[in-house]
Design goal:
The structure holds two protein chains of two kinds. Chain A is of the alpha/beta class. In chain A, strand 2, helix 2 and strand 3 form a beta-alpha-beta unit. Chain A has a five-stranded parallel β-sheet with strand order 4-3-2-5-6, with helices on one face. In chain A, strands 16-15-14-17-18 form a five-stranded parallel β-sheet. Chain A has a four-stranded parallel β-sheet with strand order 10-9-8-11. Chain A is built from 14 helices and 18 strands. Chain B contains eight helices and seven strands; from the N terminus they run βαααβαβαβαβββαα. Chain B is globular, with a radius of gyration of 16 Å. The termini of chain B are far apart. The relative contact order of chain B is 0.17. Classes of the chains: A alpha/beta, B alpha/beta. The interface between A and B is large, with 54 and 41 residues.
Chain lengths: 423, 169
């Protein structure tokens, strides 16, 4: 019996010939990361336990992205803990505001993720990097502290679910819709403790930005990681970017899966997750009666250039509905620069968008667009839990950038076709 | 590890945003976090909870964010342990690592109601609902995790491993 890509990556990192699901490995870590919310607890635990140095200053990464630029005095104190620690330990990868981006956009963009890596991050959306044929998973602050000291992490080898997406995506349907549809299909714990391996024609023909979006949301199905196999798209993305060569692994044809889920991707419509769970999905066209107050475009899920292009395509020559605030949270400074260079930022601002600096911001109800009681948002983010973006009586609908932009224009949930795009 | 306490019962998919909302994550202070524990699902929880009480929930408790502030807030609020039909995986790791006892026991979770008295034997894998006179067998903690706990948690475990390696040269 063969092995899956995840089993092969964990076998190598755990210095074993082969591993099977359920085994515990002590895997070597290629990157350990944390942010301004999770690192302070990790750093305190690291120091309390009496550790004096990190295992490798090139492999411990701190990203102050959640409440930065510092939203208040307490947040400023949290950021300072990261800054001081990064200086004290000579960390090679730490960015100040002005250079920092949203961690899961920034790290792949900066070439810090390579195929075959084992990456652990004290942020649940660390699963994003599976799009580059790596194993990456979210952990807590204490796990991060242990990985910083040890350079290893204990992991239970997960079973894998193979998702096969047949056919090609329809118009205005992107990776976001496939993953929302999938979570709707299997539920928010449908892949609990398991790896989600995304395959099939719709994924093979998808660009890297869409793949990153899909893997980003594996956690919303309870998954330990999401992963897409290495191919020409991966190779092209990494070319001239990756700081380490990495190792390419692929699932064997006779690899064993916990189950195989087949999806007719060509039949998946623009999909929206209604409050208050990502699994609560419906076609966007069925929700046209839902009036909205705000649209949030961006985040670690959909804050890459392709996402902004999709929104700009809809917003070009149109204006945001008078009642609606459109807030853009770009993923990185590089994304901003490219959006300026190709006119995307101008298009968005002319349509009436507020263009933020990169930050997790209102995605988690932190700052830069928090919702009041009774307010409703369409967001290209990843979670629509109760109170996620603000008041406990506010509501979040998750969608792709096309739908988010069309909804901003319409003042209610809409697809591009519904506001006359492409007709 | 044995506990007896009063149940606070919740349904499935209790996420970390309702356990400790992100608006309070600009601090790592455990007492401050605990003062907002469960605020967005049960605003009265903090006033009602007594030291030694037990949170019981259905599937996927702790889903969502990786914030270790969630088990920290629960533990600091005085909760002795959490019994659930299942736990989201990051919360599960965080609870073990931060010393919040957790027990996977679906039947006990489904049948318990708020106000019931529960006796929980974490190491023995046994849950007793004293109010309903029912006893349930819980899922045993994997051996590796039992060893972690026996050695004082993840960081003491790693520290002793690294010290041993250093001593061997």
């Amino acid at each position: 019996m063969g092995s899956t890509i995840i089993e092969k990556i964990l076998a190598r990192a755990g210095e074993r010939a082969a591993v099977k699901p359920g085994e515990i490995v002590e895997a070597k870590v290629d990157l350990a990361l944390a942010n301004d919310i999770t690192a302070p607890i990790g750093i305190a635990e690291f120091e309390k336990a009496g550790f004096e140095r990190v295992f490798d200053p090139a492999k411990v990464v701190l990203v102050p992205d959640h409440f930065t630029p510092n939203k208040d005095i307490k947040a400023a104190a949290q950021s300072k803990i990261l800054r001081d620690f990064a200086r004290r330990h000579g960390l090679e990868h730490y960015w100040e505001v002005g250079r920092v981006g949203i961690e899961h956009v920034l790290l792949p963009e900066q070439g810090l993720v390579s195929p075959g890596d084992v990456i652990v991050g004290a942020d649940s959306h660390t699963c994003t990097y599976g799009a580059l044929a790596a194993f990456s998973t979210g952990v807590g602050s204490t796990d991060f502290a242990a990985a910083m000291a040890w350079g290893r992490i204990w992991l239970r080898v997960p079973e894998s679910i193979k998702f096969v997406y047949h056919g090609r995506l329809g118009r205005h349907v992107v990776g976001k819709d496939l993953i929302l549809h999938t979570i709707g299909l299997i539920g928010v714990d449908g892949a609990l403790y398991q790896a989600m391996e995304f395959t099939g024609e719709a994924v093979e023909t998808m660009g890297m930005d869409g793949r990153l979006t899909m893997c980003n949301m594996a956690i919303e199905a309870g998954g330990k990681c999401g992963v897409v196999g290495y191919d020409e798209t991966t190779k092209e993305y990494l070319s001239g970017r990756a700081k380490r060569p990495g190792t390419v692994f692929a699932s064997d044809a006779d690899a064993e899966y916990a189950r195989v889920v087949e999806v007719d991707a060509d039949a998946v419509p623009p999909t929206v997750s209604k409050p208050h769970l990502p699994s609560n999905t419906a076609p966007a066209t069925e929700l046209a009666g839902v009036e909205i107050d705000q649209v949030l475009l961006g985040s670690c899920t959909n804050g890459r250039l392709e996402d902004l292009h999709q929104a700009a395509m809809v917003l070009r020559g149109r204006t945001v509905h008078p009642r609606v605030r459109l807030v853009v949270l770009p993923g990185s400074q590089q994304v901003c620069l490219e959006a300026i260079a190709d006119g995307t930022m101008k298009t968005l601002i002319e349509a009436g968008a507020a263009f933020s600096t990169p930050t997790c911001g209102a995605c988690l109800g932190g700052h830069m667009g928090v919702l009041a009681a009774g307010e409703r948002a369409v967001a290209t983010t990843n979670r629509n839990f109760v109170g996620r973006m603000g008041h406990v009586e506010s509501e979040v609908y998750l969608a792709n950038p096309y739908v988010a932009a069309a909804s901003a224009v319409a003042g209610h949930i809409a697809t591009p076709e519904m506001i006359g795009v492409g007709e | 590890m044995q506990f007896e306490g009063t149940v606070h019962k919740y349904g499935r998919d209790v996420d970390t945003d309702v356990i400790i909302p992100a608006r309070y994550l600009n601090t790592s202070d455990a007492a401050e976090l605990a003062s907002h524990c469960m605020e967005d699902i049960d605003p009265e929880f903090v006033r009602r909870v007594r030291s030694g009480d037990i949170i019981v929930a259905d599937e996927n408790f702790g889903c969502g964010s990786s914030r270790e502030h969630a088990p920290l807030a629960i533990k600091t609020a005085g909760v002795a342990c959490v019994v659930a039909a299942s736990f989201a995986r990051i919360f599960y790791r965080n609870a073990i690592n931060s010393g919040l006892p957790i027990v996977v026991c679906p039947q006990a979770a489904y049948e318990a109601q708020s106000g019931d008295r529960l006796r929980v034997d974490v190491a023995g894998g046994r849950v007793e609902n004293v109010t309903r006179g029912a006893v349930y067998e819980a899922v045993a903690l994997p051996l590796f995790m039992q060893e972690l706990i026996a050695r004082g948690g993840l960081l003491p475990y790693v520290k002793s491993r690294l010290d041993e390696e250093a001593a061997r040269g």
